[in-house]
Amino acid sequence: MDALIEARGLTKRFGRTTAVDGLSFQVRAGQVTGFIGPNGAGKSTTMRIVLGLDAPDQGSALVNGRPYVRLETPLREVGALLDAAALHPGRRAYHHLLWLAQSNDLPKRRVAEVLDLVGLADVARRRAGGFSLGMRQRLGIAAALLGDPPILMFDEPVNGLDPEGVIWIRGFLRELAAQGRAVFVSSHLMSELEDTADHLVVIGRGRLIADTSVSALLGSASDGSVTVRTPYRSEIMTVLASAGGVVSSTGAETLTVTGLPAEKVAELAADRGLPLYELTPHRASLEQAYLHLTRDAVDYRSGGGTGEAGASR
Ligand code: ADP
């Protein structure tokens, strides 16, 4: 798999602040790559550098193997939503997209297509100034999709959306990745990307903390325990303990087992004809995995130390 976005040793300073500090990572096709870090960690600055809006002090960022400024029709190669408020309030949604399309030599019909894709076809002739935040986010996503690009970047797209909008955007990001696109999406909250991201690039104070698949991260944070519920508690306890499991009773019908995978527990119970009502391998949440990952790195925190990946905006 080739990297569609590649950051190599990026560093960006604003006066005394080092916003991005020697950052390297790759974003690949067919995946949602989550870009995680507390507010102020350097996510937006990194995205701006990738899009040629900020120049790095050191290092380079490549899109499809080239710096953004060397792309001939950028909207056909990478679509981005950095700031949903960045539109002319007096312009109608349709016209906002039309001038973008024309500036990149894209066909007019594409405007109607993307409005339809994001569910704004009915309000296409309304002025963007009257749009809710959720509608603006959708319009920004429509703009990113205009050139049908293989790479998409979204900066905190979930921020400020209502629950329906959050569910919509998660499904949409997954769909874009399933179409084979590289989807790079930032969030200051790990939990926002649970069940959405395949891969994570985690940063703190401009530096890379982790570059990992979600499954590997969750695996490393899980304690490997299994919850078992059965009316045959004492019989199962004996069977599991003699197979090498460490078993503790956690309720009238429930047990927690470590040292045996769920599959083995199921086989042992089946061999003896002991029915199980529940068999649940413990799965760490992404938030727990994040805390596990950054336990020793106090440096990454944004000051509040709330236990979340940064305070909310
Ligand atoms: P994030 O997107 O992760 O919240 P940013 O990239 O916006 O982080 O900011 C990283 C750091 O760089 C912060 O300390 C921020 O205050 C600083 N910063 C970002 N842009 C500018 C700028 N134009 N001028 C000065 N400081 C900036």
Which characteristics define this entry?
26% strand; Rossmann fold; 313 residues; six-stranded mixed sheet; 2 domains; alpha/beta; binds adenosine-5'-diphosphate; single chain; 31% helix; four-stranded antiparallel sheet
Please tell me about this protein's structure.
- This protein is an alpha/beta fold.
- The chain has ten helices and 13 strands.
- The protein has helices at residues 43-50, 74-77, 93-103, 109-117, 133-145, 163-178, 214-221, 233-242, 262-271, 286-294; strands at 3-14, 17-28, 31-36, 58-63, 78-81, 151-155, 182-187, 199-204, 207-213, 226-229, 246-249, 254-258, 278-281.
- A six-stranded mixed β-sheet has the order 5-6-7-3-8-9, sandwiched between helices.
- Helix 3 packs across helix 4.
- The longest helix is centred in the middle third of the chain and has 16 residues, at 163-178.
- It is elongated.
- It starts with a strand and ends in a 19-residue tail after the last helix.
- Bound molecules: adenosine-5'-diphosphate.
- Adenosine-5'-diphosphate binds next to strand 2 and helix 1.
